[in-house]
Amino acid sequence: MSKRKMVRAIEEQEELEALMALDEQELDPLQSTLDSFFADGWITEILHEVKSGKEATVYCCRAHPSRGVPYLAAKVYRSRDRRGFKNDAVYQEGRVITDRRASRAVKNKSAAGRDMQFSMWVSHEFDTLTRLYAAGAAVPQPLARTSHALLMEYLGGEERAAYALQGVTLEPDEVYPVFELLMDNIQLLLANDVIHGDLSGYNIMYWQGKVTIIDFPQAVDPRFNSHALSLLTRDIDNICKYMARYGLKRDSAQLANRLWQRFRNARL
């Protein structure tokens, strides 16, 4: 075989292998979505689904041995037309797109614009978690992201993930400390210009006496969102309703208004 034919044969074999790899990705879109997390040495295996919600599905993944933890959580976002948020405009108010081309594409609702908007929800949650984790909030540590997925700290144990607080029965001596911790975190978020906007017992995780707040793609900046106070009030009201089942009753509107006034007067 001539040298030219040998080179051509090698190129054809490499092309065939590349096409086979693409076929495998198409057969396993989840694997493809998390590809960069494998390539960057974050995870070695997707173990099982943890939680499927209105905007994403979370998977438990085996962490690479170099990461020092057994598991990591991969959150894979649903496409915009399959997400559960019906009032995106409420949450997007005040978010600024500095790139003119991207802003025009999003405004025109082109295919590229929809992709950009989708990616911005992922980026927004990752950036929000990064800021809040650094500030000491009770949120999972964010580790890496792609345009469609976020990798973060896994909450739970080997047998199962942490429980949603909504399905947990707290011990009597846990009730007030958990309430105080959640209110302290709502205040800490506000002090860092964040309102969760969709807080409830369904996105507060409980594990071994510890609570962690999750799901921040819809979080708003209270400085630039006209719905901020109503979203803050709703978040606090959901916490108060959960605590009321234990006999701990608080006026959510009063708590929200007091916190809001402190925020407006720069006293947080």
Task: Tell me about this structure.
With 268 residues, the chain is α+β, with helices and mostly antiparallel strands. The protein is built from nine helices and eight strands. Strands 1-2-3-5-4 form a five-stranded antiparallel β-sheet. Strands 6-7-8 form a three-stranded antiparallel β-sheet, covered by helices on one side. The chain is elongated, with a radius of gyration of 22 Å. The N and C termini lie far apart (78 Å). The model is unreliable at 21-27 (pLDDT under 50).
Name the average pLDDT.
85
**How are strands sequenced across the largest beta sheet?**
1-2-3-5-4
Cα(first) to Cα(last) distance is: 78 Å
The counted number of beta strands is: 8
Give me a quick take on this structure:
The protein has 9 helices and 8 strands. It is α+β, with helices and mostly antiparallel strands and 268 residues long.
Helix-strand layout with pairing:
Blueprint: H1 3-27, H2 29-33, H3 35-39, E1 43-52, E2 56-63, E3 71-77, H4 88-92, H5 100-108, H6 111-135, E4 142-145, E5 149-153, E6 163-164, H7 172-191, E7 204-207, E8 210-213, H8 228-244, H9 252-264
Antiparallel strand pairs: 1-2, 2-3, 3-5, 4-5, 6-7, 7-8
Helix pairs in contact: 5-6, 7-8, 8-9
Tags for this entry?
268 residues; alpha+beta; 3-stranded antiparallel β-sheet; 9 helices; 46% helix; elongated
